[in-house]
Specification:
two-stranded antiparallel ribbon; alpha/beta; TIM Barrel; seven-stranded parallel β-sheet; 361 residues
Length: 361
């Protein structure tokens, strides 16, 4: 079976109802954080698709992504406003051939590249001006998304963005010897992201705000759970409230071991779904068994596995995951993180195809 043998009609409302356990799943729903540029172009080459737009057009990305996400069977598509990003002194980041989004290497968190080290840096930093953003991609999506599709965007990166701005060493030492500067950075980052979330929520086409905040590593949270609860989750709580007040859903993408935060994320922040899972940290099936029925669960096909396995092994893993997570609802199939440029295209397509044809015994 190939990807095109079974067609999918977008149905964002059914996707959300299933993810929130309000109705049994009618089919397997798919969700990803994003697709890297080289993956998009490989898909277009494989299936002879054309964006029908010049890369210089400010609507190129939203039109390209809408075409691809619709073809791939997703119920929502990311609509991104590039000027919402916080400028970073990134070493080693490269442009994907033909793509408009940078592949941000982890060098952006190395301390020597951190743009804010002092009050002078804080005052001179070019903070994003949300009120001045070019909203034409959202305006286009408002009028042109395929029937049944909604948009989502990544926002509310409160902790991770602050570590990029100050560096891990700068941020951690500031917790003890420059608390005022750290508080000012957190406040400015928080206010900027909340302004972005408010702007996004003013558009009817936006269905989901995805807070993207890596707060853990392999065995624990990056800093104490109590510090994160007091300084970061309070911002996510505000972001989720903005989304919910506007009838949107609030997903959280957070890598690493964040089990110590889950109760607060569910009961205080009130996230609707959790994304990002690694086999070595928290296999998605284990997480589903523990937190299923309380929040939606998204993705979980491990990135390292997707990058190194054979397509038949991917198909087997997808079936095993769906047999546990799909029948009762509350689950959307996807990778453990994102479809990075190093994921073999055949493995990604195998995951999608297996989801399309899955039928529980």
């Amino acid at each position: 079976m190939s990807l095109t043998d079974i067609s999918i009609t977008p149905d964002f409302d059914a996707f959300i109802r299933t993810l929130l356990y309000k109705e049994p799943p009618k089919r397997v729903f798919h969700s990803e954080l994003f697709l890297d540029g080289p993956v998009k172009y490989a898909i277009m080459d494989r299936f002879h698709l054309s964006p029908q737009e010049s890369p210089d057009n400010p609507l190129f990305d939203v039109k390209l992504d809408t075409m691809l996400y619709r073809f791939l069977g997703y119920d929502m598509v990311r609509v991104h406003l590039p000027e919402s990003e916080f400028p970073m002194n990134i070493q080693g980041a490269t442009k994907a051939d033909g793509a408009s989004h940078e592949k941000r290497e982890r060098e952006n968190s190395i301390d020597e590249n951190a743009p804010i080290r002092s009050w002078q840096d804080f005052e001179s930093y070019p903070w994003p001006r949300i009120s001045a953003l070019d909203t034409r991609p959202l305006e286009w999506a408002e009028k042109n998304l395929p029937e049944g599709m909604k948009a989502y965007e990544l926002s509310d990166q409160f902790f991770e963005c602050s570590t990029w701005l100050m560096g891990f060493q700068g941020m951690f030492t500031s917790m003890y010897d420059n608390v005022e500067l750290l508080d000012a950075v957190l406040q400015k980052v928080g206010e900027t992201y909340l302004d972005y979330t408010r702007l996004l929520c003013d558009f009817d086409c936006v269905g989901v705000i995805c807070g993207t905040d890596d707060m853990g590593f392999k065995t624990d949270t990056m800093v104490s759970p109590e510090w994160l609860k007091n300084n970061i989750l309070t911002w996510h709580q505000k972001g989720a409230a903005i989304a919910h007040d506007k009838g949107k859903r609030y997903f959280l993408h957070s890598c690493g071991q964040v089990d110590a935060l889950m109760e607060d994320l569910i009961t205080k922040v009130k996230i609707d779904a959790k994304h990002s899972f690694e086999d070595e940290v928290y296999p998605v099936t284990d997480f589903y068994r523990k937190y299923g029925k309380r929040i939606g669960v998204i993705g979980g096909v491990d990135m390292n596995f997707l990058a190194t396995a054979q397509p038949d092994e991917v198909r087997k893993r997808v079936r095993e995951t769906l047999e546990i997570c799909h029948p009762q609802g509350g689950y959307a199939l996807g990778s453990g993180n994102s479809i990075a440029y190093y994921i073999p295209l055949d493995n990604y397509l195998a995951m999608l195809e297996e989801g399309r044809k899955f039928a529980p015994d």
